[in-house]
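Structural prep section.
Before we set up the soaks we want a predicted structure of the protein with cytidine-5'-triphosphate in place, mainly to decide which crystallisation condition to try first. Input record follows.
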Amino acid sequence: MSFHAVIPAAGIGKRMGVDVPKQYLSLCGKMVIDWSIQALLNHPGIESATVALAVEDDIWPTTTSAEDPRVESVTGGEERSHSVLNALRSLLQHVPEDDWVLVHDAARPCVLEQDLSRLMQLADQGTGGLLGVPVHDTMKRTDSHARVTATIDRNRLWYAQTPQMFRLGLLHGALKNALAAGVVVTDEASAMEWAGHFPQMLEGSASNIKITRPSDLQLAEFYLARQALA
Ligand code: CTP
Ligand code: MG
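Run finished without errors. Recording the C-alpha cells verbatim:
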C-alpha cells in the first residue's frame, strides 16, 4: 500500500493579520510549512508530498522542503478545495488511483507521528477517514444579532482536523463533482460525505492545532517544545 501527502499552502492567512502568509512564519527555528511537510515525510510510510502554492510565491523556494526531492509543487486555486483538487490532479498523473493520500494543512505543524500511524492503519480495512477531537464546550446557535436561539447537543460533535486520508481516485472524483455541483467544500471529508461515503472519525490530539490567529503561534511553540522533550 502506498501513501502520499497533499499539502494545501496557497492561502494568504488573512486572519493572522501579518504581511507574510502564516505558513512562512518562523516557529522554533523552522518555517511553519517545513514543520508540517516534514512531519508527514518523516513518517516511514509516506512516499511523497505535493504542495499547492499561490501564484508568484517567492518565499517557497527559500524553504527547506523545496529542496527535498520527494516534494513536488503545483499551483493552488481560489479556495482551499481548488488547491487540493489541483494537487490531486497532478498526483494522478504519477501514481495509481488506488494509492492513499493524506491531505494536511500547511498551517498544522504539530501533528504527531503516532496519530499519522493510527490514521494510516484505517487503510488496512479499506476505509478512509480523518483526525478530529470531540467538542467539550456547550455549543450555542445565535441569530443575526448574536442572541442565543438554541443549544446544540454536543454529543457526537467533533472538531475536524487534518490529515484527512482517502483513496486518491475516489477523493479526486468526489471533490471534482462536488465543486462542479456548487457545493461548499471546506474539507476533504465533506466532499466524500457528499458523494455518499462515511469517513471514519479518529480521535487525535488537541495539540494538532491549525495556526489561524497570532496567539496560535505561541501555543504551537509550546507544543513543539514539549514534543522535542518527549
Ligand atoms: N489554502 C490553500 N488555498 C487557498 C486557501 C487556503 O491551499 N485558496 C490552504 C492554506 O494555505 C492553509 C490551509 O489551506 O494551509 C487551511 O486554510 P486556512 O487556515 O483558512 O488558511 P488561509 O486561507 O491562508 O487563512 P485565512 O482564511 O485566515 O486567510
Ligand atoms: Mg482560509
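Observations: The chain has one domain: 3-229.
Flagged for discussion at group meeting.
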